[in-house]
């Protein structure tokens, strides 16, 4: 009976053209989908170029003001636009790089080791549970990390050493490192997991241990993906805002001591955006100049990541 019913259904569809798919309607639908996808891509590109245009337009307006020059901006080691008119960008750059260095000392080794464990050692059930748990950290608002650094990490550091200030680069760097850890772990694990099983089996066939296979075969084979994950985490740390605004402080200085209070580029931008500075003054427009420097840094990291990925990418059949 089921065969007869199926035959009758097919006969009904054949003899009733209204139930068949119209080729014209299908072509129109496909064209509409392609147009929508093209417009979505075009909108994304337009938004990106609009942001860049506004950013550099306001930056040029900053350098066109009296008393402002590229030489002072790049040649001075003092930053105090609000009080003394000093506009040397390097203290903000140094503070940003100091926090990023502390964060990467935490995130990169721990993230890579965790990724190797999940990819090469962890059972399937452990991996399916532990990886989503780690990725939950990426969903926590950054302002929560900032208050965690200020109320938990800093008092803990002061308990072990009284030399830490209430606001310090080390506390902010630790919080940023915890924030970047899921990014490094997840992307690195994906890169390691993409290495073909045949390479592992060949290494085991030559007498290699699991540790030898993981460190001498899998990690080098996934090098391009690992470097991309590291560079993405570095860019994420450089652009972090709320953690450093809450925990690092607001004193721009050239220092390599993570116990001191510092200010990052994003911290200055928050201070100007939320402060009482005039929207026509040099202090306000300096925010755009700092943002332009931040954009150049992150864009350079993105370009470097693409170059490294193409240079060390391995293709397997």
What does this structure look like?
With 317 residues, this protein is an all-alpha fold. It has helices at residues 2-15, 23-63, 70-75, 90-121, 124-136, 142-160, 169-193, 197-205, 210-221, 223-238, 242-247, 265-274, 282-312; strands spanning 79-80, 86-87. It has a two-stranded antiparallel sheet. A hairpin with a 5-residue loop joins β1 and β2 (86-87). α2 crosses α13 and α6 crosses α7. The longest helix has 41 residues, at 23-63. It is globular and about 70 Å long. The model has no long low-confidence stretch (mean pLDDT 84).
SSE blueprint:
Blueprint: H1 2-15, H2 23-63, H3 70-75, E1 79-80, E2 86-87, H4 90-121, H5 124-136, H6 142-160, H7 169-193, H8 197-205, H9 210-221, H10 223-238, H11 242-247, H12 265-274, H13 282-312
Please give the share of residues in helix.
over 70%
**Multimerization status:** single chain
Number of helices: 13
Mean pLDDT: 84
Given the C-alpha coordinates, what overall shape results?
A: globular
Structural class: mainly alpha
Our measurement of the CA-to-CA distance between the termini, rounded to an integer number of angstroms, reads 49 Å
% residues in beta strands: under 5%
Q: Order of SSEs, N→C?
A: HHHEEHHHHHHHHHH
Uncertain regions spanning at least 5 consecutive residues: none
- Please count the beta strands (DSSP E, at least 2 residues each): 2
Q: How is the biggest beta sheet arranged? A: 2 strands, antiparallel
Order of strands in the sheet with most strands = 1-2
- Rounded to the nearest angstrom, the radius of gyration is 27 Å
